[in-house]
Write a structure and sequence with these properties.
Length: 706
């Protein structure tokens, strides 16, 4: 969404040109850094979803093109796109014309609200590290609860914003000029709204005039509450604190007072966040005391008053008190009866919406089985849009995919690399990527994720648009755990994107992977999650003993996949990935890669802390060979030192027998190990000793730089 403007801008200036250079994704200077996240470009438009926009809006000639700056554009005399104003009614377009023009320019579409139409859009703006650098501006849990309550109460057509984080609630019931507060904006005229068709609540545009009026009133009241000298003038204390507390605890609403005083507010449905509970408790204190200072003191003595915003200074409490005192003055308002009637009407609308949802739920439950069976003609099938790609030709926008390979082949590093590129919308191995929210659940090997992320940041950019979920003890075949994960994804607006499960087996501990019953159950639960949150689920899995047979376990897993990527490592240490299955894609495409070690830091003993990042094999040149040799030397020397500290007598042969134990940290062939030992002895970092006539190796201590 963008503010209206009459300034003319060219298509090239505002719609931008995208670089298709295949190596761009490996150049940190061309990527969003942790200091640029707040200015990240919105997700690319998705025309296939525009058919979901309500017909009622489509029929109105109030459409135009949405530029990358979220401003409205029309078609100029020379056919180029030019910026237009929300007042240029003669330049508005029919829906079909806007769609065709937008598709031709790889742009979006949007609707302009006018004073003549009955529509209102509630723009809910969610902020976190993916779109806002300043943590102080991130959406709080209280605000998120308020957002969800607004969406539920209006129960009208709702879609995701262009960036995939915000929500646009569309309804009927105009309220004139726009208002905004704490991430909620209400517009009914002279406003351009980018439309996506990425549906969150598939309902008609409901008549919600009363609710719109109530929401606007709430925003204006809390936004406009100022410290009126009259209402905030200090008055004498009529009772001491203990008397007021005793009276409140013996009043007719004592149960609620006691709950709020003890901090137990979240069980009350009328308090969507603690701020409303704060207001209620302050109202009770203000009922008994004319003194604002006493009210602040009493409030800070409660559990609710322990929040930093309440104890830091008087600003928050004064704002709350100002609202309370204003309401007290309104008790004598001659229009009081109107406000009561208005409140009753709003309550009736909410109750009606609740009852309607309950009835719809009952009807939907009865029709659920029937709705799964659909009959389509050939003509209908060919009209369906083609497959939409998240990574073009490799990973679909929606569906079920797997990335698999043997242990120590680099799966975890490649997975992180792929997800970071998707979250940033950057090309991956030369393949175009559509940006989307990404959630990474590391059920296995989660302790290594922080170091892998640090290494990726050092080599490329901070992947702060990628969300990490820690859930080490849940099992996705348990309905309660499955639903808990779905709820977390929905609460944090991680829907419609990519959900990565690493690994498949660890997500359901104890499952029989070879059993159609066990694995079939897990696949069914994953498909349920995908149905609820949308987007693509990517699972990380292992190969079996026979690599040629592909994914480990039940053969039905392969059939359930929409895409499969195999990761392998040959005898020379070169790694590669290959697309082994892609519905409507090209099987067999792939790329060689290597793992490049990155120095992250040093520990308290001065030893290096390292991890790896993915690098194109073609880029791993002779200069990198010297780095690899140094890595091998450091690793072998450190391994010998730890063996000696453990009371052992390491030798060349014993180290060769330990190569399998070394694999999680480094891949060494027998020759590479022997060469490293020889180099270290020559350099004097290892020396040969003898114990009972048998040779062994010890590490020579050297001063380490700190």
């Amino acid at each position: 969404m963008s503010s209206p403007t009459d300034q003319k801008k060219t298509q090239t200036e505002q719609l931008g040109e995208k670089s298709a250079h295949p190596q761009a994704a490996r150049n940190p200077s061309q990527h969003p850094s942790s200091t640029a996240t707040g200015n990240a470009a919105p997700a690319a438009p998705q025309p296939a979803r525009w058919v979901n926009i309500p017909q009622e809006l489509k029929r109105a000639k109030q459409w135009c093109i949405a530029g990358s700056d979220k401003a409205p554009y029309g078609v100029g005399k020379d056919g180029t796109l030019v910026n237009i104003s929300v007042h240029d009614h003669h330049k508005f377009m029919e829906f079909e014309d806007a769609v065709k023009t937008a598709a031709a320019h790889d742009a979006g579409i949007g609707f302009i609200l006018t004073e003549q139409d009955p529509y209102t859009c509630i723009d809910i703006d969610y902020k976190d590290a993916r779109n806002e650098d300043n943590p102080a501006k991130h959406t709080t849990p209280e605000q998120l609860e308020r957002f969800n309550k607004i969406i539920e109460a209006f129960d009208s057509y709702t879609e995701l914003s262009q960036g995939g984080l915000g929500r646009h609630v569309w309804c009927k019931g105009g309220r004139g000029a726009g208002v905004r507060r704490d991430g909620v904006e209400v517009y009914s005229k002279e406003r351009f709204i980018v439309c996506t068709g990425n549906v969150m609540n598939d309902r008609p545009l409901e008549e919600r005039g009363e609710l719109v009026a109530q929401l606007v009133s709430e925003i204006e009241r809390t936004r406009g509450a100022k410290l009126d000298p009259a209402s905030m003038e200090e008055m004498p204390e009529d009772y001491d604190d203990s008397e007021i507390l005793e009276r409140a605890r013996n009043a007719g609403n004592s149960d609620k007072f006691n709950d709020l005083y003890e901090g137990n507010w979240d069980s009350y449905i009328e308090y969507p966040s603690q701020s409303e509970a704060d207001l209620s408790l302050m109202s009770m204190f203000a009922f008994y005391s004319r003194s604002n200072e006493q009210c602040r003191r009493l409030f800070r003595g409660s559990a609710l008053g322990q929040r930093d915003k309440a104890s830091r200074n008087d600003r928050y409490l004064n704002r709350t008190l100002s609202i309370v005192r204003t309401r007290q003055q309104e008790e004598d308002d001659p229009n009081k009866d109107y406000h009561i009637k208005h409140g009753e009407q709003v309550a009736a609308v909410l109750l009606e919406a609740f009852n309607r949802r309950q009835e719809e739920q009952r009807v939907n439950e009865k029709a659920q089985a029937k709705s799964r069976i659909k009959v389509s003609s050939a003509a209908e099938l060919v009209k369906r849009p083609p497959v939409r790609w998240r990574i073009h030709g490799i990973l679909p926008e929606e569906g079920f995919a797997a990335l698999y390979g043997p242990p120590a082949c680099g799966k975890s590093f490649l997975t992180l690399d792929m997800l970071a590129h998707i979250a940033a919308g950057q090309p991956w191995f030369g393949h175009k990527v559509r940006q989307t929210p990404v959630a990474y659940v590391a059920f296995e090997g989660g302790h290594g994720v922080p170091q892998r992320v640090s290494a990726f940041q050092k080599a490329h950019w901070m992947p702060d648009q990628l969300s990490f979920i820690e859930a080490p003890t849940i099992s996705l075949i348990e309905p309660a755990d499955r639903d808990a994960l779905i709820e977390v994804l929905q609460q944090h607006l991680l829907t419609g994107g990519v959900l990565c499960i690493d690994t498949l087996a660890a997500s359901a501990p104890g499952i029989d992977e070879n059993s159609s019953e066990g694995m079939g159950k897990l696949i069914s639960e994953l498909q349920t999650i995908q149905h609820e949150v949308g987007g693509c689920i990517l699972v990380v899995h292992h190969t079996g003993k026979d690599r040629e047979r592909g994914l480990r376990g039940w053969s039905g897993l392969q059939g359930a996949l929409d895409a499969a990527i195999e990761v392998a490592r040959d005898s020379s240490g070169v790694r590669s990935w290959k697309l082994t299955k892609a519905k409507d894609g090209q099987d067999g495409c792939g790329e060689s890669f290597t793992l490049k070690q990155v120095l992250i830091d040093h520990n308290e003993d001065g030893d290096p802390i390292t991890s790896c990042v993915v690098a194109l094999a073609a880029q791993y040149n002779a200069n990198d060979h010297s780095v690899r040799v140094a890595e091998e030397n450091d690793f072998v020397c450190e391994w010998v030192r730890k063996e000696v500290e453990a009371g052992k007598f390491p030798s060349g042969r014993s180290l060769e027998r330990q190569r399998d134990q070394m694999k999680p940290q480094i891949q060494l062939t027998q020759k590479q190990l022997r060469d490293a030992i020889a180099r270290l002895v020559t350099e004097g970092r290892l020396q040969e000793e003898k114990e009972n006539g048998k040779p062994w190796l010890s590490a020579v201590e050297r001063m380490r730089a700190r």
